[in-house]
Each structure stands twice: as structure tokens, then as C-alpha cells.
Write a structure and sequence with these properties.
With 107 residues, the protein is α+β, with helices and mostly antiparallel strands. Helices cover 37% and strands 22% of the residues. The longest helix has 16 residues.
Amino acid sequence: VVGVENVAGATKDVLVYVVEFRVGSRRWTVKRRWNQFVEFHQELKSSFPRAHIGAECPYKAWLPAGFKEVKGRQQLLQGYVQGILAIRRLRQWTRFKSFFEFEEDPA
């Protein structure tokens, strides 16, 4: 997770977290809102109910409020993304590839 950006939403400005990937010589970024990560994690848990994920997506209730704490949120998200990237079976899941915009198998 390389940063956060404040972007205009439909009714208010929102924060998006910028995740950078490098696979071989290919490099790209994905921008997602916090709630999108939470929804993705819920899908992951329902699709792999017996899998030991080893990383838990931090919910908003766990997070301190205020823009100055965004760096802490970013670090929590970094740990989560690294944790799920470490599990090959999850990386091969179609929803994983679409959420993180992998065009090829991220072996």
C-alpha cells in the first residue's frame, strides 16, 4: 500500500488506498476504498470458509478517526494485503484477480 488519495465521491470526498503491484516487469496500481476491502474480505471468507487466511481485514470500528491516523490505517491494510498475497490458493481465485486487477496468474 503506497499511499492514500482524497477523491471526489458522489456526495462527498472519500479516501482511497493505493496498492502497488509488481509481477516480473509488469507494474500497476489499484485504488480501493476501505469498505471495498472489507466487502472483499467477507467474500473471501465465505468462499474459503475452512481456509486459514492468517490475515484479518481491519474493520472501521478498529480504526482511530481523523486524517492524521490514515498512515496507521495504511499500515494495517499493508499487512492484510501481504498476508493474503502469501496464499497461492487465494491468488488463483477469480475474484482475487479481478479485485486486484491481475491480468495473468500471479504465481
